Amino acid sequence: MRRTAMGALVEWKFRSSRKPLLVYGARQVGKSYLIREFANTAFEDYVFLDLERQAAARAAFDGDLGPDRVISNLEQVTGRRIVPGRTLIVLDEIQAAPRALASLKYFCEELPNSYLIAAGSLLGVAVNRTGFSAPVGKVETLTLLPMTFDEWLDATGHGKMIGGITEAYAKKAAYPLHEQALDLYRTYILTGGMPEAVASYAEHGDFATVSRVQHEILDLYVADMAKYAEPVETARIREAWSSVPAQLAKENHKFQYKVVRSGGRASQYAVALDWLETAGLVNRCIRISSGQVPLKMQEDRSAFKVYLADTGLLSAMMEVPPAVLFDEAARKRLDAGALTENYVAQNLVADGFVPRYWTSGRTAEVDFVIEDGGARAVPVEVKSSGNVRSRSLSVYREKYEPVRALRLSTRNFGMSDDIESIPLYAAFCLKKGAVC
User: What confidence tier does 324 reach under pLDDT thresholds 50, 70, 90?
Assistant: First the structure.
């Protein structure tokens, strides 16, 4: 499967000031697969060690953490010669070996020409635990997210549509395959971007099989909560996680602790939410009180929405019947707002944006406001259908006069009242540094 992150790995290889690379990402987003593909295509020689499964590999980091000693130990474990500057060393599931993580500092300082990649399913959680030494300033980082819709198109045999959609976006011209693209978007809403689920759909075209894969992944996530969280935290993490569909089913999607549990408070569940966010399982969208830049200065961090990192997993948790999404009459009875917002949030995060939303008291709310490198804030309204009437975007525009306003819906590309219409399937076209 083509992953956009492959380009970042290639750039890392040829960077003169290269440091060891830490690859973050939730379980099952395809980290190991991507790194193996990179190793096979970009290196003549590499060693791949799973520090969770291979006790001998973990033991290689006992004692002196000097790179020469570690490499000697790894050669004995693998039976392979490791040549710094030629051999790629991959340390998978590095969160299982705190000393392996600490060793990256010494590889950076003492063996800067080495090629070393470390990855972990819950690496973000692990480095916050007592006993871990994160080599701050001595590593580069890359976060791998679920597959975006354009990656999904390529994986399912529709890759040639990416160029057509991108061209229509650039020209603000109607896309001739609009209805087909909308159906593919609806399919993506159900399958999401977890590589195993995408591969299952590409091979079988069967939503029931996809659903089984998704529920297996959800079960793994719940198991990880017990494995990588303190016992006292586990129950609250699970409660917060299970509440996300209900949070998004409300008319007001703002996260409310009382929805997690009757009488719930921030003091009880704030740490649980931080765990979910650090684990890469959810994306947090912070409320801003003003559309003036920099938007970070306008944040009210006590008010936020929580979206799942993968919309397909949200569909599975919500038990959305596939037939409903593809029947126009039935679709009108479906509250698709939660899925649509989650999808857009997922794409914004993948494209480098910090998701934020704006409210004006109880009178108006804009789903997202994004800030580009041009120091301009762009309001983004999201509609799950072609009914695009909304007062909130007008209120925002009158107050802040943005140079550009976007509306993502099921309508084709075009302009209406100086608001740019972008089909939902083209959300991947919004790129950090190029939106304004």
Answer: confident
On whether the CB atoms of residues 117 and 20 are closer than 8 A, the answer is yes
Lowest mean pLDDT among 3-7, 269-273, 358-362: 358-362
Mean pLDDT of the region 160-182: 97
Local confidence band at 434 (pLDDT 50, 70, 90 cut-offs): low
Q: How many CB atoms lie within 10 A of CB 144?
A: 23
HEC readout, the chain: CCCCHHHHHHHHHHCCCCCCEEEECCCCCCHHHHHHHHHHHHCCEEEEEECCCCHHHHHCCCCCCCHHHHHHHHHHHHCCCCCCCCEEEEEECHHHCHHHHHHHHHHHHHCCCCEEEEECCCHHHHCCCCCCCCCCCCCEEEECCCCCHHHHHHHCCCCHHHHHHHHHHHHCCCCCCHHHHHHHHHHHHHHCCCHHHHHHHHHHCCHHHHHHHHHHHHHHHHHHHHHHCCHHHHHHHHHHHHCHHHHHHCCCCCCCHHHHCCCCCHHHHHHHHHHHHHCCCEEEEEEECCCCCCHHHHEEEEEEEEEECCHHHHHHHHCCCHHHHCCHHHHCCCCCHHHHHHHHHHHHHHCCCCCEEEEECCCEEECEEEECCCCCEEEEEECCCCCCCCCHHHHHHHHHCCCCCEEEECCCCEEECCEEEEEHHHHHHCCCCCCC
The average confidence (pLDDT) of the chain is 93
Cα 267 to the chain's mean position, in Å? 27
Which pLDDT score, from 0 to 100, does residue 277 have? 94
pLDDT in tens, 94-113: 999 999 999 999 999 999 99
C-alpha to C-alpha distance for 419 and 411, rounded to whole angstroms: 12
Q: Among residues 368, 388, 364, which one has the least CA distance to residue 377? A: 368
> What's the whole-number mean pLDDT along residues 70-76?
98
Pairing of strands 356-360, 282-288: parallel
